[in-house]
Write a structure and sequence with these properties.
By secondary structure, this protein is of the alpha/beta class. The chain folds into three domains: 135 residues, 3-Layer(aba) Sandwich (Rossmann fold); 107 residues, PAS domain (Beta-Lactamase, 2-Layer Sandwich), CATH 3.30.450; 60 residues, no CATH class. Helices cover 40% and strands 20% of the residues. Strands 2-1-3-4-5 form a five-stranded parallel β-sheet, with helices on both faces.
Length: 373
């Protein structure tokens, strides 16, 4: 049944209630079971045209909602999640282009695919509809049911593709912002080991600006000659689909060597083929310095321990309350106690009473009963 646009006042009085299209009695559905059902909202002020849409979509795997004016259509569009809106170009309370603008989300995009329906098949009308965001434009008098179903399916596929591209662009923009702000050097190279991307972190770490680095082989820039073979082996592993994480030395523009942690992994295309290599270099100079300080401290402590334990004179660590904390073998021999027994005592326990009183007399914090008479 062709669709017709009524411009002479034969539109419904008020908005039609939403409805779900049901198949006609005895009429089989032709939808393939694996295909998803599409939610369609038709906004048209002519009852005959809405009926024609309803009949066309009954056998096509669609759930249909109907609105007879712009106000009701906008409410349904916002309260439900249509996959496609069939929008009359001229409504009783608004123009179709005005409804399109009202449908836009805060970011300026439309919430779903829109197909414009009109009785005027002029180029100006078609151009205006497509520029406003409609993905297709159908003339009612020339429209057949199968054509409508195909148009809806095509518009939904096109909208989802565009939306997927938009999501990918947002994700790529977010990743680009993360890469740009990263303190790490993040570099990508092609299969020929030529630099493709070079972030600000790479410039800070290696001294080369992006313009200096792009188009040059990475080995020419930052790989010391003695590490050339190892660098080739790393690149070969990644190009074959593997990943590499290790610590290594790389060369700054001024010639000094920089200790780095390298994390290299493959970049794959949609078919899973390796097209490039992502390399993240993290400056570990501070970590290396901290490790060197730790090793020096450990070596110093070991030298002290050996000196303390093997000293020919008695040595001890004594707590403020007089408890032995640590004693060496020479002190144990001098006092005649084994180490475990001596450390169970206090300094006062092994000090002659007279010497203990003399020590207390010299201490301003000594108790009166501890002072000598």
């Amino acid at each position: 049944m062709p669709l017709h646009e009524d411009r002479g006042g034969h539109s419904d009085q008020g908005a039609a209630a939403p409805r779900v299209a049901q198949p006609l009695p005895g009429q089989p559905r032709t939808r393939v079971s694996s295909e998803p059902i599409l939610n369609v909202l038709v906004i048209d002020d002519t009852a005959e045209d809405r009926m024609a849409v309803r009949l066309a979509l009954e056998v096509g795997g669609f759930v249909l909602q109907e609105a007879a004016d712009a106000g009701q259509g906008l409410k349904l569009a916002r309260s439900s999640t249509p996959d496609c809106i069939l929008l009359d170009y001229v409504l009783s309370d608004a123009k179709g282009l005005e409804v399109l603008e009202s449908l836009r989300q805060p970011d300026g995009t439309l919430p779903c695919a829109v197909v414009m329906l009109t009785g005027a098949g002029t180029l100006d009308v078609a151009t205006a509809a497509m520029k406003a965001g409609a993905l297709d434009y159908l003339v009612k008098d020339r429209l057949e049911a199968d054509m409508l179903r195909r148009a809806i399916g095509s518009a939904v596929r096109q909208f989802r593709l565009v939306e997927a591209q938009r999501v990918a662009e947002r994700r790529n923009a977010q990743l680009a912002a993360i890469v740009a702000a990263s303190d790490d050097a993040i570099i990508s190279v092609g299969a020929d080991f030529v630099v493709q991307t070079w972030n600000a972190g790479a410039q800070r770490l290696f001294g080369y600006g992006e313009a200096e680095a792009q188009g040059r082989r990475l080995s020419e820039l930052i790989v010391p000659d003695v590490y050339e073979a190892e660098s080739v082996a790393i690149h070969t592993t990644v190009v074959s689909g593997g990943t590499v994480l290790k610590e290594i030395l790389r060369r700054h523009k001024d010639g000094r060597l920089v200790p780095v942690e390298i994390n290299s992994s493959p970049i794959l295309d949609s078919a899973g083929k390796v097209t490039a290599t992502s390399i993240i270099y993290r400056d570990i100079s501070e970590r290396r310095r901290a490790e060197e300080v730790g090793r020096a401290l450990a070596h110093s402590e070991e030298r002290f321990r050996v000196t303390f334990e093997n000293a020919p004179v008695g040595m001890a660590h004594v707590a403020p309350d007089g408890k032995w904390v640590r004693v060496n073998d020479a002190l144990c021999r001098i006092l005649g106690y084994p180490p475990d027994e001596l450390t169970a005592k206090s300094f006062q326990d092994v000090t002659h009473p007279r010497r203990r009183r003399q020590r207390c007399a010299c201490r301003p914090d000594a108790r009166p009963q501890d002072r000598p008479l």
